[in-house]
Specification:
Layout lengths: L5 E5 L6 H14 L6 E5 L5 H8 L4 E5 L16 H7 L3 E4 L2 H7 L3 H13 L3 E6 L3 H5 L3 H9 L10 E5 L13 H19 L1 H6 L1 E4 L5 H8 L6 E4 L6 H10 L10
Helix pairs in contact: 1-2, 7-8, 10-11
Length: 255
């Protein structure tokens, strides 16, 4: 089954109004027509400006997190309904940094994802193993455990991001064999959760120190359907190079 590649930029805690404006005004002109689906996820403070600039373009705007309730006494949190009201289309859930630094669990990540889908948002659900878990031969067991909570989600509004934690921000990247092995195992797991047809249609992104010089070989793997790009997405030229590395990435692009 042909799956349209999805290339998502996670800016994390970077960016200013000036930088997102300059970045997006150029990016919207360079994203290929009918090429990969492109999503930009800047910090919450930049979302209104990003939505306005990207309106009517091939670039969708996403958030980096959301709460599992639509409203309530949750100081500092943002509800998925608020994001939808703003014109946001995507949200990242369960990122390894949320798990590592802010106590995110499989269960709370799933609750956020379910709330996001109820609000009409598309979800990028992150999972992946630590270095210690990989070296102990626990990668597949970790992926099976983390993916178990996906059963309550709608697979037609879901993308999975496999992010080996040991390769995020470290400069290390999973080999093509490691990435493909994990992605193929996840697709088999998803077939058990959602059925073969739904799993075949669901996109699984790679997210571990994706850069212009390694994107093409990763994106060429049969079960790698795109990338969740962190630090490299802050550089416009680098991010465009990753977009162009995806199948169909140069179709209609402005060079």
């Amino acid at each position: 089954m042909s799956r349209r590649p999805l290339i998502a930029a996670n800016w994390k805690m970077h960016g200013t109004l000036e930088s997102v404006q300059a970045y997006l005004e150029t990016l919207v002109r360079r994203v290929p027509v009918a090429g990969p689906e492109v999503v930009l996820c800047p910090p919450f403070t930049l979302l209104p400006a990003a939505v306005m600039i990207a309106s009517g373009s091939e670039v969708a705007i996403g958030a980096q997190n959301c709460h599992w309730e639509d409203k309530g006494a949750f100081t500092g949190e943002v509800a998925p309904t608020m994001l939808a009201d703003l014109g946001i289309h995507w949200v990242i859930v369960g990122h390894s940094e949320r798990r590592q630094y802010f106590g995110e669990s499989d269960q709370t990540a799933a609750a956020r994802a379910q709330a996001a889908q109820r609000a009409g948002l598309e979800v990028i659900f992150c999972l992946g193993e630590t270095l210690e878990q990989r070296e102990a031969g626990e990668t597949m067991a970790v992926l099976e455990r983390q993916s178990a909570v996906l059963a309550g989600l709608d697979p037609s509004h879901l993308a999975i991001a496999y992010e080996p934690v040991w390769a995020i921000g470290t400069g290390r990247t999973a080999t093509t064999m490691q990435a493909q092995e994990a992605h193929a195992a996840l697709r088999r797991r998803l077939a058990g959760l959602f059925g073969t047809e739904a799993a075949a249609a669901l996109r699984i992104l790679y997210g571990g120190s994706v850069k212009p010089d390694n994107a093409a070989v990763q994106l060429a793997q049969p079960d790698v359907d795109g990338a969740l790009v962190g630090g490299a997405s802050l550089d416009l030229e680098g991010f465009c190079a990753i977009i162009h590395a995806a199948p169909g990435g140069r179709r209609g692009a402005e060079e």
